[in-house]
TrEMBL record:
The lineage of its organism: Eukaryota, Viridiplantae, Streptophyta, Embryophyta, Tracheophyta. It comes from Setaria viridis (Green bristlegrass). Its cofactor is Mn(2+). GO terms for molecular function: ATP binding; protein serine kinase activity; protein serine/threonine kinase activity. Belongs to the protein kinase superfamily. CAMK Ser/Thr protein kinase family. SNF1 subfamily. This is non-specific serine/threonine protein kinase. Residues 12-266 form the Protein kinase domain. It comes from the Eukaryota. GO terms for biological process: signal transduction. Its EC number is 2.7.11.1.
Length: 463
């Protein structure tokens, strides 16, 4: 970072600190080209590498790029320097929702609006196979139209690492939002655990205090595991009933989102502070082909599913393999040239493995091992730097959307590149949706084209 002017990577001017988590500091920043306000979360790379989380974080970042919803804080891009990882995030101007509660609890009507937005975000993420697992007040932010923005969706690796660091009991302080099955460290269903946390959040919104609290941690655990709480008298019967079903200590009988949405309390009408400004972002257009306002609660599920089904028809720069946010080359590249090739595919993992096996047989590559979704391949003859070896690893970004990473683990880079170019790429042509390295080229070409035509004016911030 240029310390004097606080310019990051020639792209963002860093301003005041907005907050601090266990793992990161968050700063206000402005995109120097577009003028857009963003928040930049700066993470210490050493720390995450030390606890062995880099691969998990890499995977979760790619998942976050798939998650696009008006009530989920958007990750625009990820950058890295030698010692830091930078998450460039949508800026939530309104700050934390719970700063508002500290000034007074909400009426049920006001709480319902936020709750609708929370459930909409959570339902959307669950439909993509993404679970938050750490929903709590710090993760609920507001934009300048008073719309809820859930942050850190998909970044559970960072939450996990808090635990590995032993910080949960110190800095995070309270497990008050965590479901009993998570506390007891049994295997748990991420969606049910998130529903519990939403129940605690709903209680806090209307009561102004936590349902489970006790200065003694053991006693607090006991109360959570038995769902021992009392609602204030002012709570409506319908609200009590919904909370009772959400704060069910047995995850197997806990109410699912579909039934939360059919509950009497949830379905009561509300009309409060309609937003002044219409958000007209690429994401909104993506939802249904035309702009929707950011608090028109959701792209309906069928519309979203259509988006997934129509992935290849979307603006290529809007989605994962072609998005800047997915460019983690700084983070993971070798000093002398890229040793990884990544492509996305909509074929199932078995088909990808079968194709790789077929290719290996044809090229007489030895299949050394298939372990945890990694296929290890080795050339039969020694090259100039020993036997060429490569790993093929599959990551599931969404149920029908995979990322395949090919990585040289031994041998000469030029021999490897030749193998990829002459053999692997043509052989996989039919199953590849996009090669990530092609994105670099395409993006460079487009950026060059844009620069030649008309430099972007420093337009108004999007928010
Ligand atoms: P975190 O590390 O995500 O828990 O962030 C720490 C604090 O920084 C949060 O509790 C917020 O107060 C603030 N913060 C994080 N992200 C943003 C954002 N995108 N916009 C505004 N404030 C943020």
């Amino acid at each position: 970072m240029d310390e004097r002017r606080n310019i990051l990577m020639d792209r963002y001017e860093i301003g005041r600190q907005l907050g601090q988590g266990n793992f990161a500091k968050v700063y206000y920043a402005r995109n120097l080209t577009s003028g857009q306000a963003v928040a930049i979360k700066i993470i210490d790379k050493d720390k995450v590498t030390r606890v062995g989380l880099i691969v998990q974080i890499k995977r979760e970042i790619s998942i976050m790029r798939l998650v696009r919803h008006p009530n989920v804080l958007q990750l625009f891009e990820v950058m890295a320097s030698k010692s830091k990882i930078y998450f460039v995030l949508e800026y939530a101007k309104g700050g934390e929702l719970f700063n508002k509660i500290s000034k007074g609890k909400f009426s049920e009507d006001v709480a319902r609006r936020y709750f609708h937005q929370l459930i909409s975000a959570v339902e959307y993420c669950h439909s993509r196979g993404v679970y938050h697992r750490d929903l709590k007040p710090e993760n609920l932010l507001l934009d300048d139209n008073d719309n809820l923005k859930v942050s850190d969706f998909g970044l559970s690796a960072l939450a996990e690492s808090k635990r590995q660091d032993g910080l949960l009991h110190t800095t995070c302080g309270t497990p008050a939002y965590v479901a009993p099955e998570v506390l007891s460290r049994r295997g748990y269903d991420g969606s049910k655990a998130d529903i519990w946390s939403c129940g605690v959040i709903l209680f806090v919104l209307v009561a102004g205090y936590l349902p489970f609290h006790d200065p003694n941690l053991i006693e607090l655990y006991r109360k959570i595991s038995k769902a021992e709480y009392r609602c204030p008298r002012s709570f409506s019967v319908e609200l009590k009933d919904l909370l009772f079903r959400m704060l069910d200590p047995d995850p197997s009988t806990r109410i699912p989102i579909s039934r939360i949405k059919r509950s009497t309390w949830y379905r009561k009408p509300f009309e409060l502070n309609p937003p002044k400004v219409k958000h007209d972002t690429a994401r909104d257009k993506v939802c249904n082909g035309e702009a929707t306002t950011s608090n028109s609660r959701e792209c309906s599920n069928s519309e979203e599913n259509q988006v997934l089904q129509n992935l290849p028809n979307m603006n290529a720069f809007d989605i994962i393999s072609l998005s800047t946010g997915f460019d983690l080359s700084n983070l993971f590249e070798e000093k002398y040239g890229r040793k990884e090739e990544r492509f996305t595919t909509r074929q199932p993992a078995e088909t990808v493995f079968a194709k790789l096996h077929e290719l290996a047989e044809r090229l007489k590559l030895k299949i050394k091992k298939k372990d945890n979704g990694v296929l290890k391949l080795a050339a039969p003859k020694e090259g100039i730097k020993g036997f060429l070896e490569l790993d093929a690893e599959i990551f599931e970004l969404a149920p029908s959307f995979l990322l395949v990473e090919l990585k040289k683990t031994n041998g000469d880079t030029i021999e490897y590149k030749k193998l990829v170019k002459d053999e692997i790429r043509p052989a996989l042509k039919d199953m590849v949706w996009a090669w990530q390295s092609d994105r670099h080229q395409q993006q460079e070409q487009i950026m060059q084209g844009e620069q030649q035509q008309s430099p972007l004016p420093p337009g108004p911030p999007q928010q």
